[in-house]
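Q: Two folds, back to back.
A: First:
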Amino acid sequence: MSDIHSTELPRISTSTSTTPPPPISILLINPNSTPSMTAACLASLQQSLPQACSVTGFTAPALTSPSPTSSSSIPSPSAIEGTSDGVLSAAACLHALIPTGLAAQHDAFLVACFSAHPLIPALREEVEGPVLGIMEAALYAGRMLSGRIGIVATGKRSKVMHEDAMRQVGLAGFSAGVVSTGTGVLELEGGDEGREGVLGRVGEAARVLVVENGADCVALGCAGMTDMKGRCEEVVGPEGARVLDGVGIGVQFLVGLVREDWNRLRVGFMGVRRRGGGGGDRIGFRWWVSLRSRC
């Protein structure tokens, strides 16, 4: 009988002679109109960006400034803190991305809002590449890595919405709860109590989830928390818990999907294009054409 420890197992690996992978272009979409959050998301990706991958940041148009892609832009809220914010921001992003052709320039799309944002399913109806939200990315990764997932939320409304989202994606049984920091989205940048005060609130929420609620994975429940991952790791890392940032994880997921050529489904209801077949005029084709002509 051969010694299993001396048997060489089959293995494959990349080599310098391997043809470089084709470039992948990901559009990171911040559906609110606060550019600093887009910049923070992009900065967080610098150290982990895969080979031959670029990420372009898009910020939804603000009320006081014209869209870089449209002279007649629809404004988006400065923060997404409820259902109405989500609907308004989805409309603003669709208007800026689809009729202008900007979305068609990219291979995959990451919606940088930690919620079941309506822009995610809307984009899946309109683009060829995969579309992922940072909440989906963080929760699915958490399920792969851990037994119990906790979420650090901003305000009380976000807490309720995250709890609902956990149930909707079928992960309520693996939830260690959602803890609110009591801050608004825009207050994450400092607000009246300063940066250290906000970092303290976020770190304390992570501690409660791990030490008191039993979470072994903590998800940062807002794109504005991306650069706070380090503080949370300082607090809960000694307890053996992981901290998940859906921005970085989402990019890795999307790269994998594009590399495997897993784009949007072309069968079933997701395969029915708004511009396809004889029913295009009935379901809104002329609406998109009219928008494109105005951009």
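A: Second:
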Amino acid sequence: MVAVVSSSIEIAASPEYVRAKFLEFDQIPKYSPEGFIRWITPDVAKPPIELQPGDTMKAAVGYGEMKVTPRVAENSPAKFAWDGGIAGIFFGFHSWNFNPIEAAGSGRAEATLLVHQEEFSGVFSFLFGKGWIANWLGQAEKTRIGFGTFNRDFKKWVEEK
């Protein structure tokens, strides 16, 4: 079973610009100090734009309640993603997709649809699914709200620059 939590937002900037700002991980505590994601730090001594699949990171998520050590899964112009967990038990694939929104007839991106999501798999993924236990616990909804809050903080910061 795979459970997906997703939130998206339109940002008035090109996908290239949005991705470049997203990769400024050191700015997260400034634009989202109380947000779902408090900080992200690469474990390797290279700029975030140079992170490769397999590189590890550290992050504080869940409003700072969880410290995770994910691996970069993708770092491309269209997507940044990490994954981590215990395969078969509880595993997450967390991604940010930078999708172009073209102005009618222009042929170029005038804005970005940022799609922020996580796919949970493993025997405990039902906790983020749609069953009555998941609904009662509310983890999926709390996570979706957290993603939305991060997205709004990020959008405000990007559009102010």
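Q: And?
A: Strands lie at 2-11, 39-42, 57-61, 66-68, 71-76, 79-86, 90-102, 109-121.
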